[in-house]
Design brief:
Layout lengths: L2 E5 L4 H17 L4 E5 L2 H6 L7 E4 L2 E5 L5 H16 L1
Parallel strand pairs: 1-2
Antiparallel strand pairs: 1-3, 3-4
Helix pairs in contact: 1-3
């Protein structure tokens, strides 16, 4: 199971990315742990300067914006394909 983290201070964009990520996973039929990281010291420790950020297994996949649901689905499909290869 992948760990997906949404980093940000809890703003509307961060909440939107969190909800869209959960929706994209549901549409794909994939179960992953999705966690919000709102402690800015932890966000800064990961060297993420733009929020919201989408991190999958420690790798930054999106930062500073909220992608569309289709873009999120494609990101997740690509990650799952890498895992299977």
């Amino acid at each position: 199971m992948k760990l997906i983290e949404i980093l940000g201070p809890g703003c509307q964009r961060c909440v939107a990315l969190y909800e869209l990520t959960k929706m994209a996973l549901k549409l794909l039929g994939v179960e992953c742990e999705v966690k919000k990281v709102e402690d800015m010291r932890e966000v800064m420790a990961r060297k993420v300067l733009m929020t919201p950020a989408l991190i999958v297994d420690g790798k930054v996949k999106v930062r500073g914006r909220v992608p569309t649901i289709d873009e999120l689905r494609q990101i997740l499909v690509n990650i799952l394909a890498e895992e299977e290869a």
